[in-house]
Amino acid sequence: MTEQFTVDLINLRLILVSGKTKEFLFSPNDSAADIAKHVYDNWPMDWEEEQVSSPTILRLIYQGRFLHGNVTLGALKLPLGKTTVMHLVARETLPEPNSQGQRNREKTGESNCCVIL
Question: How far is CA 106 from CA 94, 99, 101, in A?
């Protein structure tokens, strides 16, 4: 199945945890929150089992990172007229920005703690 993509739009292939995929076209000016709302409002029929109660809990993951609602596709420098793959998950809150750093410190044994003599 061959589709022609509009040159000034970004084709997003969204993948659910279940492995189901669907493609949507978006403008570089669309934010992660805009995308979540559009997908929620146009929920695919074959995703019925994964339907969520609100667009506000839909989160996009791109290159292993959660996207905050105000991040636009243009800010990510995604190629126009090409397909970009992202994961779509239901999650109430985003992880804390420094939680990854905290995990890394735990693995390396580094600590910000005092030494008591």
Answer: 21, 11, 9
Q: Using CA atoms, how far apart are residues 116 and 32, in angstroms rounded to an integer?
A: 47
Beta bridge partners of 62: 65
Which residue from 18, 26, 24, 76 is spatially nearest to 48, judged by alpha carbons?
Answer: 18
For residue 40, what are the contacts with CB-CB under 8 A and spacing of at least 6? 52, 54, 55, 58
| β-strand partners of 31 | 72
31 and 72 in contact (C-beta within 8 Å)? Answer: yes
pLDDT in tens, the chain (117 residues): 444 456 799 999 999 999 999 999 999 999 999 999 999 999 999 999 999 999 999 999 999 999 999 999 999 999 998 999 999 999 887 777 665 554 454 555 555 555 566
